[in-house]
């Protein structure tokens, strides 16, 4: 097949236009990907403030002032109460900007047990994994 000078110029333009269009579509699709972690369940809380909690000294009011409202409260026998602070963060990764891919998960949990009004025990747990 023989191309004249004008046809060759038009073909180069079409190839360039196609490449630009493909790049634009790729950039647009990648902009649709949201890898920003979001709270999927629970309520975020400042776990680093846990260091200020003291067994036998910290009260329910001081803990709530420090960490905010717990995710869950549970009454237990003998004037005891369990407070649970919990949050699950998820960041979704997409393949080619449109196909759902893996999900990175971070879960923070702090469990505090009160005997009467005072802290009896507490423990934290932080888990990171992919689904």
Describe this structure in words.
Strands 1, 2, 3, 4 and 5 form a five-stranded antiparallel β-sheet that branches. This protein folds into two domains: 1-31; 34-130, Beta-lactamase Inhibitory Protein, Chain:B, domain 1. Strand 2 (72-76) and strand 3 form a beta hairpin. The protein is an alpha+beta fold. Helices cover 27% and strands 43% of the residues. It is built from two helices and five strands.
SSE arrangement:
Elements: H1 5-31, E1 38-42, H2 60-67, E2 72-76, E3 80-95, E4 99-115, E5 118-130
Antiparallel strand pairs: 1-3, 2-3, 3-4, 4-5
Features:
Beta-lactamase Inhibitory Protein, Chain:B, domain 1, five-stranded antiparallel beta sheet, alpha+beta, 2 domains, 131 residues
The biggest beta sheet reads:
5 strands, antiparallel
What is the CATH C level class of the largest domain, in words? Alpha Beta
Coarse shape? rod-shaped
What are the low-pLDDT stretches, counting only 5+ consecutive residues below 50? 27-32
Number of helices: 2
Taking all Cα atoms into account, the compactness measure Rg is 28 Å
Strand content: 35-45%
Average pLDDT figure: 84
Q: Tell me the number of strands.
A: 5
SSE pattern, N- to C-terminal: HEHEEEE
CATH level-3 fold name of the largest domain: Beta-lactamase Inhibitory Protein, Chain:B, domain 1
Sheet/helix structural class: alpha+beta
Q: What is the straight-line distance between the termini?
A: 54 Å
The CATH architecture category of the largest domain equals 2-Layer Sandwich
Number of domains: 2
In helices, the fraction of residues equals 25-40%
């Amino acid at each position: 097949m023989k191309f004249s000078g004008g046809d060759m110029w038009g073909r180069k333009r079409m190839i360039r236009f196609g490449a630009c269009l493909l790049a634009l579509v790729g950039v647009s699709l990648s902009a649709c990907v949201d890898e920003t972690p979001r709270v999927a369940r629970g309520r975020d809380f400042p776990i680093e403030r846990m260091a200020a909690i003291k067994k036998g000294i910290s009260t329910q009011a001081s803990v709530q002032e420090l960490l905010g409202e717990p995710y869950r409260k549970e009454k237990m026998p003998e004037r005891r109460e369990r407070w649970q602070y919990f949050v699950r963060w998820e960041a979704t990764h997409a393949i080619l900007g449109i196909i759902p891919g893996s999900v990175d998960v971070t879960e923070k949990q702090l469990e505090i047990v009160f005997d009467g009004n005072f802290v009896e025990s507490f423990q934290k747990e932080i888990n990171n994994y992919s689904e």
